[in-house]
Amino acid sequence: MFMALLSDAARDDLHRVGTSVYHRRGQDLARAGTALDAVHVIDSGWVKLWAPRDGAEQILDLMGPGALLGDVEFTGDRPHLCHVTALTDVRATAVSRDAFAALAEDHPEIYRALARSITARFRDEYALLTAHQARQRLGVLLGRLADRYGRTTPDGLVHVAVPLTRTLLARWARLTTAASGRIVTRSFGSDVQFRAEGLLLRRESLTTPEEDL
Q: Which of 38, 52, 209, 213 is deepest in the core (most CB within 10 A)?
């Protein structure tokens, strides 16, 4: 994620010019259409990006520690494109637009990190758009979390400390909870485990072609 692309000096300066903010679970960090007054670096916790769709909440993405919120809006000088709500209690560093721009002038690597971060997110969205089967969509979304936030365990699994429930995954993949559960069980079996401490995944199984339900 964004912060992992920066040097220690740039990270330290970003936290120095920013303000530490706290958001309780369920609290909005941003609403679609409102002006972007600051970017936010997630220091701890998780948020969901979402938009209303057919009277329901369509999950667009999940973001956790090290992510930068407002990157696309900052580079495009646009208002917030979607709603951002805390999935857990969140601690973040808020940096005003002007301060962030000034910091990027002092640390050009910030612009490079922005470009790489945004490119990666568009690549993720392209992979999702071209995943036409439900099984493929689930694999893309689980793989996205593993690649962004995963830590390899001694037994070769990938642990992602994300508060992802089966229901939330289904909504993200635009499926019913029952359909998503059947596909996960049939296609991935024990290679995808929902635990209290997060997800346990076998990364290579997420891209194995299988017949969809």
A: 38
